[in-house]
Write the structure tokens for this entry.
Amino acid sequence: MVTLSETQRETMQSHEWFHALDLGGGVQTCGRFPPGKPQNQTLFSVFDFLKDIDVRNMDCLDIGATDGLISFGFEKLGAKSVLATDRVSGDGFRTVHGLLQSRVEHLVPVEISTIVDQLKDRQFDLIVCAGVIYHMLNPLSAIMACRALLRPGGLLIVETAMSWLSKHAVMVLNSEEEESMESSTYWMPTPKALEGMVRLCHFEVLGGRWQPDIGRGAVLGRATPAQHPAPGGTTLTRAMHQHGLLDYQFSKQLAAADASPASTIAFRGPVRSSEIASASYIPVFPLHAHRPEDTALGKRDWKVVPRSE
């Protein structure tokens, strides 16, 4: 059972929480969404994939871990190792890490542009990159970096803010369209674009989980060796893979990743895309607090810009 010292309680009470966590013993954090709303709802697509993935004895990487819900959840589910990375070190992650007496490795500061070099020769079976790429001016580079860090056959879940303005493979420039009023949201892919981005970076797309009601979604991909073009792509995608992508650094990283022993991780869910109704979906994931009690600790990490008149 988690017992808080006065200092820990004060720290948790003053922290702006992104994740709503249930740490046991009546200790919960408030999460980022308004009271009464399902918390952690931008991760529901991720949770829906993870319920069909056995992480026991697997090496897992959580990119953009913030308060650590995915990272600590992996540990609870029996992962062999868990690495959490982020741009900054936050009081939330550090406090929860201590309360849980966690062995999760926390590496900060880490930028996507340097993550492959920072992690050197490390390889993973599963990577979750949630809430990251829409904050980037070059979002495709994140998916490339993830592919370079995965063993052949490894799994990637990439979750992001998304656009439904088009049925085509389009990246929407949010600063012009104002689909999201979060000032750090730059690019929003359509579902077809997100699937295509993942496939272009040498993944077999196993499905999408879309949340159009909140403008979010995720794609699950399995890393395929460069010499075996991923199934399901267009004629042009297959030609691009056959002739090699014109990025020398990524080609070197991909060759190194493909030389690693294959992962044994498996996805046992349906290979398809589907929609999730965020208001009614109730995920099952360790430490997830769906609707925290009124006594939940902390402030809410909720900032948007007023919409243009």
Remarks:
- The chain has a mean pLDDT of 94.
